[in-house]
Amino acid sequence: TDPAIIRNFCIIAHIDHGKSTLADRMLQLTGLVDDRSMRAQYLDRMDIERERGITIKSQAVRMPYEKDGQPYVLNMIDTPGHVDFTYEVSRSLEACEGAVLLVDAAQGIEAQTLANLYLAIDADLHIIPVLNKIDLPSAQPEKYAAEIAGIIGCDPSEVLKVSAKTGEGVRELLDHIVAEIPAPVGDAEAPARALIFDSVYDTYRGVVTYVRVVDGELSHRERILMMSTKATHEVLEVGVISPEPKKVDRLAVGETGYLITGVKEVRQSRVGDTVTSAVRPASEALSGYQHPNPMVYAGLYPIDGDDFPVLREALEKLQLNDAALTYEPETSGALGFGFRIGFLGLLHMEIVRERLEREFNLDLISTAPNVVYRVIMEDGSEHIVTNPSEYPTSGKIAEVHEPVVKATILAPAEYIGTILELCQTRRGIQQGLDYLSEDRVEIRYELPLAEIVFDFFDALKSRTKGYASLDYDEAGEQAADLVKVDILLHGDPVDAFSAIVHKDKAYAYGIAMAGKLKELIPRQQFEVPIQAAIGARVIARETIRAIRKDVLAKCYGGDISRKRKLLEKQKEGKKRMKMVGRVEVPQEAFVAALSTG
Ligand code: GTP
């Protein structure tokens, strides 16, 4: 394809502002998917994506389009909108020349609208501002067009207005994409260089590598070289997604598509790497991506210890598809062999866990997540602690450092008071407050990551009736007064329950945690004391009284089906129990720390 007729673009938006719906309309309007086979969120292929109604993985789709009798090829890259997946967004942006900035006409600009907009500006993309959902009675297109214009520095009349639901204005948007977004430029004669922006493991086809060709071309049957690993492969298939995978002979300058090399070894196709020709290699790789740092860590353990190798293999495969995932093996006295896994945030953690369970048929226990601490000892040595159980217990600690973030909160002005109060109780330091319009403010705070990563967003939402949005970025670390709180069950410390918390909150945490565990751990045949302790000092205590567990006693020998039901229910309840010493502990207990923050 002649690069002059190619337009590579993505849609960036805050969550729920309608990206997937707009993508659906574009697929229909360009005739790629006919009305009969149309289903909502066509591009969200993963079951989890469809069920949760959110986009996790980016997708690149090729659509034919005609404007004034001239054919064009539009490559649309759909991007995720949640704060945990900013990394995926910036990867997608690298493969585009333009971005559609989509804003809900009933909501206005939100925190991720801004975050994504800044990423797009950094990537030098041409921005097309668009208001969506203009069919809603509550839409205020004029007001929000002014808001957007104020931020990107255009005239309010230049903000397009569409309804992704009804299709109104979508054709005009496609025309603007063709007219305004620059065609890709590259050197067709130069040695091939293509950026890997995604890699997926497919059970039937092996590794599928998604690329954007920058220079030269990649063709069927040629030998390619992965520039960072130096591995060479034969290309068994090249193709484009349109909207299902479709074979082509070659991918040329400016095109996006996929490569299949028959490789099963997942590490050979790294996101961010440059693909070149093995026969005529390029001398310099493309700049690639910065690897994202995990924000939180948690332990994942198979309930059945025999599943450990399965979990290892599953993580290997998932990592290829999710470059942000990091893991290393660890052992827990309470939980046995498992992995310590680094995540970008809690949603990322939930999704990884769900994918491991569904796609690899595993039953897992996860421990409460924590951030990374840097512990500096008086003798000058340092420990990086990604697991509270690694917190040094011998030697004198000089300082403990915790990660901090710069947070941006957008909300209606009437909630300023309650938001400031929330940030204050989370050890925040205010950095600024600006009015975006008469009744909407942008509040900036520096906060410890540990204070915001767990339940901050929920607290913020409930205080603002759902109207506030949040985005945050790493901002280094700070020294803080932190201590390790251990939990003892039946006299034995359970490593998986240890947590690092601020000194001022340690007592409250210990009491809440002991109380929570008392609720969550079922009565056993014997009495089980629960204690919270800092070092040798016990700060809270609860007791689970003994009981003789006999569920059938309640039935008085009656109805047999009722009995069976009860037994099944009990079996179901057992599924996620783990023996810790002599005590049976349910899965919920391991993440109880989450809700006692
Ligand atoms: P993520 O993929 O999770 O980031 O969300 P998204 O931005 O892709 O949003 P999605 O397309 O899933 O739309 C969110 C909700 O808004 C859905 O319930 C859509 O039906 C609805 N919606 C999208 N566009 C319109 C529109 O133009 N008008 C109306 N009334 N509703 C819309």
Task: Give an account of the 3D structure.
There is one protein chain. The chain has 597 residues and is of the alpha+beta class. 24% of the residues lie in helices and 35% in strands. The protein has 14 helices and 33 strands. The strands form seven sheets. Strands 11-10-16-7-8-15-12-13 form an eight-stranded antiparallel sheet. A six-stranded mixed sheet has the order 2-3-1-4-5-6, sandwiched between helices. Helix 3 (86-94) runs parallel beside helix 4 and helix 7 crosses helix 8 (346-359). The termini are far apart. The model is unreliable at 52-58 (pLDDT under 50). The structure holds guanosine-5'-triphosphate. The site of guanosine-5'-triphosphate (GTP) has 19 residues, from helix 1.
